[in-house]
Design goal:
By secondary structure, this protein is of the alpha+beta class. The protein has eight helices and ten strands. Helix 1 packs across helix 7, helix 4 packs across helix 7 and helix 6 packs across helix 7. The protein is elongated and about 60 Å long. The chain binds a DNA duplex through helix 6.
Amino acid sequence: MPELPEVETVVRGLRTPLETQKITAAQVFSAKIRTPIPVHLASAVTGRTIISVARRAKYILIHLNDDLTIIIHLGMTGNIRLVEKSPATWSPEKHDHLFLRLHSKTAMVFSDPRRFGVLDLVKTSELSQWKSIRDLGPEPLERNFTGAVLKNILSGRKTAVKLALLNQSLLVGVGNIYASEALFRAGISPLRPALKVTSAQAETLCGAIKEVLRAAIKAGGSTLKDYRHASGEIGFFQNRFAVYDRAGAACPGCTCDIAKTGGIKRLVQGGRSTFYCPRKQS
DNA sequence: CTTTGGGCCTGGACGC
DNA sequence: TGCGTCCAGGCCCAAA
């Protein structure tokens, strides 16, 4: 499910209810999601205080005192919900994996039906060396992420630019939806080899990535199915997709004869759907 | 080193 | 109603 805008929206929704709160009870319900959940997680976090909630790439970081950080990745179908006036002991619904009850009596529940998510506990001081964080590329919304940086990332790679954008070791946060959307905005074909993206195109693409991610955050992310804000609200950026999941339809500003051209095209790259307009993207 | 393909899971949509 | 097939927002790992 969740790409950078969705994860960022969840993080923002968790800050006020979680920060400064002491964890008064914790339960873990399934031993294994994508990776094993540490057996000591529940006992280790109980009694600790949440200092801050942050995001790195698509990872949610809940920083506690005593040098501990809870890492949550939502995978494809993960979601976090807040329960007000929660009981001290949680009766898990199907697919609930983690329950954290706070001093305020609000609780946070992490669920993930497809179990592609990650739940881990690490020392905050060792976070930057944690296996999946260590090799991540730059944050696209940072000021120092520029067209020149993107050009450098893409240069020398024979792989299609769409696949390069999905590679989190090159650039984080962009997933299957926003890769298609950013390439459409930039007028670049998803099939173009990364090394054939010119400096001028890299500049445009850099701007398009920032633009589409910011717009999606503003809209509270995209809800296709499972994704929810921590408050339970859905996002609505899916209503503004230019190309994603719109095969056969007209792209924004389309002037061609859809009956003849077939409109937006779907293709498969790296086993995943890509959507684009062959007439506007090259 | 880069690139490719399979695997991990569940559930919903669809065709018969 | 039921059964089989395909598909889905992410990521890891082995193999080429």
